[in-house]
Amino acid sequence: MSKFFINHIALSVKDVDKSILFYQKLFDLNEIENTASNSKTRWLSLGDGKQLHLIPRPDASINTNKAVHFALTTSEFENFVLRLKKLNIEYSDWLGTALKDYIRKDGIQQVYFQDPDAYWIEVNNDI
Q1: Does CATH place domain 69-124 in 3.10.180.10?
Q2: Backbone angles phi, psi at 38, to 5 degrees
Q3: pTM score
Q4: Which candidate, 86, 9, 114, 112, places its Cα nearest to that of 53?
C-alpha cells in the first residue's frame, strides 16, 4: 500500500488578512506563494513542505466543535503557553477549564484555543 503524508490544512476564513496576522503572530509562520491559482487564498508554511491554506469565504457559516481540530507540536510547550498569555489568547484543557493545560494519560501536555474563525487548534509537546 502507498504511504500517505499530510500536505496541507485548508480553512475557510471570513477575513484572510486577519487570519494571516493571527497565525503569523502566534506561530511565526512565513507566508509562501500560492502556486495553485491566482485566487485570494493565501498560504503559510508549516515547515517540511507542509502548508496552511487560508481560503477567503466572507459569507461562510463556520460551525466547529473541539473534537474537530488540528494539532501542532512543539518542544517549547511552556514558552508557547506563555506566548498565548502574552497575546491574550484564551486557552483551555480538553474539558474546557480556562487557562489550564492538560496532561494526557501518556504524559503529553496539551492546550486548546480557537482562531479568529473559531477553528479549534491543539498545541502539544508530543515531540
Answers
A1: yes
A2: -100, 20
A3: 0.94
A4: 9
